[in-house]
């Protein structure tokens, strides 16, 4: 297997992330990889919101408010989990899919492009020696939360990509045989 392929097959999400996180220049490099996502008609159906430093606490407040709006009876531990979620990594990038109307590019294709962009971001992070994990949860589908974050009505959350330095050992990668996933038709 060549070096490029070895890199691709060793991508490994990191649930625990710590400092340092990528700086602005490194984030821009990672985003350059994201921007090479396959993109029908070059609609660029994505944008990113980068949340780092103290702004993560402000994001945590929005997550808490969104939780309480969805579930006013949320217990203390759920509230703490929501408020502290963005603190699990030095940088959180909200990958946003911006949907537009196009005669040849249905919304599903635009969502797929944005998902590829999120993957590109993770690969870009690993290429620079960082780690990441893509997370969603109920809040990613919560329209009032999206509005509070500044998303327009035609925008959706593709995912929260947490980025930083892996804390702990990488998990063992599952053995997967490509032949089990492919048939020559
Ligand atoms: C759309 C999407 C949403 C995800 N949401 C979560 C999540 O909310 N929480 C979580 O722990 N993992 C989530 N994952 C899975 C992780 O990003 C990761 O893929 C998983 O931990 C397996 O690790 P690996 O990517 O190294 O195989 C999500 C993945 C995708 C593609």
UniProtKB/TrEMBL annotation:
The keyword NADP applies. FMN binds at residues 11-13, 36, 40, 134-136. GO terms for molecular function: oxidoreductase activity. InterPro entries: NAD(P)H_nitroreductase (IPR052530), Nitroreductase (IPR029479), Nitroreductase-like (IPR000415), YdjA-like (IPR026021). SUPFAM superfamilies: FMN-dependent nitroreductase-like. It comes from the Bacteria. Keywords: Flavoprotein, FMN, NAD, NADP, Oxidoreductase. Its EC number is 1.-.-.-. Binds 1 FMN per subunit. Its cofactor is FMN. Residues 17-164 form the Nitroreductase domain. Pfam families: Nitroreductase. PANTHER family: NAD(P)H NITROREDUCTASE YDJA-RELATED (PTHR43821:SF1). Belongs to the nitroreductase family. This is Putative NAD(P)H nitroreductase.
